Amino acid sequence: MLFNSVIFIVLFLPMALAGWFLLQKLENPACAKAFLVGMSLWFYGYYNVSYLWILLASLGLNYGISLLLGGCQGIRGRRILLGAGLLGNLGLLFYFKYFNFFVDNCNFFLHAGIELEKIALPLGISFFTFQQISFLVERYRGSALHYPILDYAFFISFFPQLVAGPIVLHDELLPQLQKRENRYFSAAGFYDGFTLFILGLAKKVLLADSLAVLVNAEFCNIEALDSLSAWVVIFWYMMELYFDFSGYCDMARGIGRMFGFRLPENFNSPFKASSVREFWRRWHMTLSRFLSQYIYFPLGGIRRGKARQCLNLLAVFLVSGIWHGANWTFVVWGLMHGLAAVFETAFPKLRFRWEWMNRLATAVFVTLSFSVFRSDSLEMAGLLWRKLFAEPGGAMLAGICNTLVYPENRVFIKFLEMKAPELLNGFFLVCFALLSGVSLLLYRDVRRRNGSRRGGIRFWVHSVWRPCSSGRFCPCRRSACFCISISDGLWGEKNP
Questions:
Q1: Which of 29, 161, 179, 314 registers the highest number of CB atoms within 10 A of its CB?
Q2: Residue 74, Cβ neighbours under 10 Å: how many?
Q3: Residue 462 is a catalytic residue
Q4: What's the pTM?
C-alpha cells in the first residue's frame, strides 16, 4: 500500500486515525497500540501477505536477543549475542536482497551455471533491518531499555516509516509513546501534519510522477539521445528522485504528526551543499546518521590519522552504495561518492574561491553520479555518459517533451490532434516549460522579507477559517490567513 494510493487516503488512514484516538479517548493505551500495530501489519502485508512472516520473524529474533542481552552480564556473552543478532539481520538482508546478485555474479565470473528461482525482495527490508541493528547495538552498549513487546513492535512496524523511512532510532519514537499528551487528539498537530502530508503528496504525484514519465521513456531509448537531450534527462532524473523521496518522507512525517509523533527530518536543502560530505549531511540524513554512528565511528573515524579516515570514508560510502541496491551500478555509484569524499578530505584547500562555484560543482557531480545510480547496467551508464559529451545537438528535445502525456490532458490532446495537429509540439513544450519553472523555483528561496529566510516556495492562501498561529512571519499581514511552506526547499535556508 502506498501513501498516494486511493485506498490509503480514503479508507486506511481515516480508519487508523479514528481507531487510535478513539481507543486513547477510552483510556486504553495498550489496545490503541495493539490496534495501530495491527493496522501497520495490514499496511505492510497489503501487497503480499507472505512478507508479513519475514517482518514478524525479524521482529521476534531481535526482540529475543534484546531480552537475552538484558539478562547477560559477562562481556563475552554479550558480544556473542550481539554478533548473533548482527549475523541474523545481515543474513536475512543478504538472502532476500543480495542472493540473486551473488548467484548471477558467480555464474558470470566462475561459469558456475547455478539455476535458482529468483527471490522476491520484501518491501522496506533494508529500513527495518537497519532500525533493528541500531537497537541491538544500543542494547549492547547499555543505552537502550528492554521495552515491552507491544512497544517494540510499534517501534519497528509503525507504518509511516516502515517501507521507505526515515530510519528512526528507539529514543526518537518510543519516549513519545509514553508521553500522555501525545495520546490525545491535537488540532494544531493534526493541521501541521495534514499540511505536510499534502505538500509531500504534491511533490510525489504532481512533480515526481510527472517527471518519471519522461525519465523512464528516455532511459529505455538512450541510443537515440543527443548530448543536450541526455543532459536534460539526467537532470530530470535527479529532480524526480528528490521530489519522490523527499515527498514520501514528508508524507511519512506528516502522517506521524497527525498521530501525535514527530519523526526525524530526512532532507535539508541538499543542493545547497558545497561538498559531497555536506551533501550527505543534508540528503537522506537518517541513513547518513546510521552509517556514521555504526560504521564510521566504530572503524575509528578521524582518530587514527588522515589515511585511516580516508579508508573509513571509502568503506562507509561503499556500504551506502550496496545498501541502496543489488547491482554493480550501485557499487560504482557508492565508490564515486566515496572517492569524492576522500579527495575533499585529503585536499581540503582545493576549493573554488566563491562558494556558489563549490555548490555548482557539487550539484553537477551529484547529478552525474545519479545517472549511474539510475542505469540498469554499467554498459548503459557508459553509453549515457558518451552521449553526454560526444554528440552535441538538441533535435531530440521536442521528442522528449512529447513523452509528457498526462492522463488529465488527453481530452485536450485529442482536440488538438483533430483540429490543429501542428500545435501539439508547442503544447508539449509549454508543459515542459511549466514543469521546469516549478522545479527550478524550488531550487532557491525567492522570499527575503523582514530578515527571514525560509526554504522553498512559500504559498500564502487567504482564508477566513483559520487564523495564523504558526509564529512565522506572515506576509499577508491579516488576522485571518494560513501559511503553507514546503518543508525543505532545495536551496532555501531554515529560520534561525
A1: 161
A2: 8
A3: no
A4: 0.79
